[in-house]
Amino acid sequence: MKLLKQLYKIHSPSGKERAMKKFIRKYVKRRIPDITLKSDRKGNLYMIKGSAETYPCIVAHLDQVQKNHSNDFIPIETKELIFGYSPKHRRPEGLGADDKNGIWIALRCLEKYDALKVAFFVEEEIGCRGSIEADMDFFMDCRFVIQPDRRGCKDLISSIGWTGLCSAEFLKSVGYEKFGYQETDGMMTDVLPLKERGLAVSCINLSCGYYEPHTDREFTVKEDLINCLHWVEHIIETCTDVYPHIYNMYKADGRYAFLWDDEYEEAVNEIFGMLDMDDTLGVDDLEYMYGLYFPHLTKEHFIQIYQAYHDLRQDDLLEESEDYNEEQQDFRNLEFLHQTASFTNGFIRKTDFSDKVASGKCSFIKESQKQENLG
Ligand SMILES: [Zn+2]
Predict the structure, then answer these.
(1) pLDDT at position 160
(2) How far is the CA of 336 from the centre of ligand 1 (A)?
(3) pLDDT of residue 201 exceeding 80
(4) C-beta neighbour count of 260 within 10 angstroms
(5) How far is the CA of 187 from the centre of ligand 1 (A)?
(6) How far apart are CA 375 and CA 353, in angstroms?
(7) Residue 42 CA: distances (Å) to CA of 6, 199, 240, 333
(8) CA 15 to ligand 1 centroid distance, Å
């Protein structure tokens, strides 16, 4: 439990995960040979141990919610549990076991196994801002993704918002009954943005032995954490296949889950490019021109993209003109996408274009399609 207590001692509020990252980097470099470490623009950490055709993958988040963390903070360990305490203030203080327990499991597995991928995300607690910008290429050769990041000792989260994260085959293979877990629906955590951004393998989120998260009374039941570790080890050892799973963007009521979709990103790029050529175009023009190409965008999105373009333009971001290169353009578009991430963190109604097509209003429809539709 030495490593676990070291993690608890590091205060790691959202946006201030530097000390935690520094500790992990140092720990990994010293203790785990044959590991590749990298980070992305957002500050997420990625690790690859060994070299294999496919990898098991564990993810966890680096940040914690609690603000209180005195200089004399100590993790107190009893026979059954660990909690945080400040002798000076004579008060309990939160451990940040949510999600340091997940980090601990990932590090233990990195030490134990020859081939493993691990990603640690920043800012999960303030809207999964790290995983929303994760480098998706990292996950291309993963067999499945496990996130130990759930209170208690028995939840196997196989869906979030009642939309599935994993295949029935994967659920059958993980053998959760033996470890006392039950399948249930969960809340927002990093694996959801990964799925929504197209991660095509099964994901699960597991209880990892912390209780009363986000409070100063938070505590860890050691036995529950260790049971979770053993189960994760069991999955790594027995689930050696790739477990494909495509996230179903369409909800049962025909609505479209749209967090950070490529289609939106592409639409912003296209429309910004078009407005660069002709800034007299209005919202209706844009909707008319692009509606068919981007069927999941609503009127509100066109208004938003249009306004963002003109706002940015006014801010002079656009008008450093001549030497304005492609790279800057991409960066600008990306900035806007980041700003609107929270807006798209909802559901967008599927637009039905059949009326427009039938009335011949969509000039973009190809002749052949038109004939098909009429036929
Ligand atoms: Zn968490």
Answers:
(1) 86
(2) 27
(3) yes
(4) 22
(5) 10
(6) 17
(7) 25, 19, 31, 16
(8) 15
Which whole number is the average pLDDT over 159-179? 92
CA of 276 from ligand 1 middle (Å) equals: 42
d(CA 332, CA 338) in angstroms, rounded, equals 10
CB-based contacts of 353, cutoff 8 Å, min separation 6:
291, 292, 295, 362
Residue 180 Cα distances to 103, 146, 158, angstroms: 22, 17, 15
Tokens of 256: 């479209």
CA-to-CA distance for 50 and 219, rounded, in angstroms? 34
CA distance 61 to 15: 12
At 18, is the secondary structure helix, strand, or coil?
Answer: helix
* Average pLDDT over every residue of 10-14: 97
**pLDDT category, 291, cuts 50, 70, 90?**
confident
Q: Does domain 2-238 have CATH number 3.40.630.10?
A: yes
Query: Do 60 and 47 contact (CB within 8 A), yes or no?
Result: no
Residue 135's beta-bridge partner residues?
none
The CA-based diameter of the chain, rounded to the nearest angstrom, is 81
Ligand 1 centre to CA of 206 (Å) is: 11
Distance in angstroms (rounded) separating the CA atoms of residues 109 and 131: 21
For tokens 């920043």, the residue is 122
97 Cα–ligand 1 center, Å:
8
Domain locations in the chain as residue ranges: 2-238, 256-365
Q: Cα of 130 to ligand 1 centre, how many Å?
A: 13
User: Given the DSSP bridges, would you call strands 256-258 and 346-348 parallel, antiparallel or unpaired?
Assistant: antiparallel
Interval between CA 117 and ligand 1 midpoint (Å)? 19
How many Å lie between the centroid of ligand 1 and the Cα of residue 95? 12
Beta bridge partners of 297: none
